[in-house]
Amino acid sequence: YPDEMYQLYRERDEEGYVQCCLLSDKCDVFYRRRPSQDCTGYVFRPFTWGFGDPHVISMDGFMYTFNGIGEYWYLFPVGQCDFEVQARTQPIKDSEATVFTSIAVKINNCSTVFVSLLGREDLSLFVDRQNRTDDIHSSGVISNDCVNIEFFPANGTKRSEIKTVYYNGAFLNVRANTDLISMNFSLPDSCKGRTSGLIGQWDDDMSNDLLMRNGTLLSQNVTDREKEEFADSWKITPEESFMVYETGNHSGNNPATTPTLYLDEFLQDANITTEVITLCDGNQVCLFDATITNDTSIAAGSLLVTNEAEEAVIVGNNVPPLIQTPLLLLLSLDNLTTLQFNVTDEDTFSVSYSLSPLSVFSEVRLHLNPTLSLYQLDLRLIEIPDSMNVTIIANDSIGVSLVSVVVYVCGCENGGYCSDTPSATDSVGDSGYIRSSCQCPLGYEGVYCSDLVTDPCLQSVCEVESCPSGTEKNEFSKCVDIDECETECTVSIRVCQNTYGSYLCTCVLGYIEVGEECTDVDECNSNIISPCQHQCTNVVGSFVCECNPGYALQTDGATCKAVSNTFICPGGYTCQDNECAIIEENTVCSYCERG
Fold first, then answer.
1. Which of 150, 346, 374, 449 could form a disulfide with 556 if both were Cys (CB 3.0 to 4.6 A apart)?
2. Mean pLDDT over the full length of the chain
3. Paired sense of beta strands 407-410 and 433-435, if any
């Protein structure tokens, strides 16, 4: 994102959180205005893909092939979907193949972006019909109030790419391949149920994706020749075009020039070489593109895109682990501190941490407390660094969750002390942590009470006769701290943290201090986190999630997925291992996921 957007994040989220929540007693107001987001209730936003000779994967996941030449409504908006996309296909020399070579995107009150194949393996860029190719190639970035465009030059086996991010959440990625482009993009939620064109209707139902412009709906099982009719219905007119032309004229859509070789017919009697069979490893799109174009690099590009599309669905449908940590980690110099946190996920996961810089910590240990069923990170701060970051990491092999804990550092020396919570007098900057102000004892001054007062009459130069509360005289007749945690704060629902001259006895995760007692937190009615996707029931020290009728609770104990006791799989599928697998007739099965 542009630097301006990061600055807005700093002003509206990061700095607002510190000033309005950590340094004040208005944290509940802050979270009502800026509610915290985690992965609970996450819904995957799919991509649509266009690549090869040419193949399209709709927003609902339906893939088809057509061989048209001309310009098409790749996305024709319906209703309030403020997003229009047009695409151009052209023939490859000395073959019957046609491929995508250009794409144009238009959003109201924003720049129109046009990306096209340049030569055989590079990309050109026009913004509002102005040629910005040299600009993007030299600077790498072009941005304004509504769009950010980045150029990534070819590097080794990786081809040139242009990535475009819009203010409304839409994303477009265009990649150059030999003699063609491949593209994928996602849409804002406002477009769901409001799309048509080559990408079909985005409504989680791939059976209605082949909707022609005249309203005729084709079955998914029609031949590729009939799919050509669907694509032809979405060809654009000169009046509709917002594409860029070298000659200034609409390129035309001559149906007489449409090739006549189709994927389903080709696979019946194609003579495929051993080299292609080895390359494609059974991928039909790759086999088709290699044979029809006589170019294995195009086939390899199609294989790459289909693999990326499959991986994107797997990654997108995965909900990464949910990490719940306290709002604040108090670190006191030379004292052992314990950070308690909880991690949940429906899959197997691993937990780790990142400490920066690691050299300022000692006695670092991450372990699971079996009594509390919470993870604990023990660490001792032995030096105050210029900057600091403490991050908890949870990985389920598909997705990774990161939570950077807000750190409050008490670095007071020589008997100086900090408050237990941040205040407006504490230092907040770019260091990555909040530095507490110190109350220095007689004879010391400075940020951390590390400097002797210049007036010798105020210096503690004599041996002490008695020590203040929380300290004791050592063999050198100096006052040293007593570690009260060895004898105090031993209740199981509390955690003890020693400080100079005193100690902190705080409640474990799931409880909150009310007066002098640890009282259960009602997570179900908290303004800070909504732990359950559907129904939440508070229990002592924790909570229990339940799902609405027709849904099943997942192994993470928080999210729900739709189920049905007697769900009929679509035609051509049967239920195997709770999945709908391909067969030749309908079969009634139990507990298949809807859709």
1. 346
2. 79
3. parallel
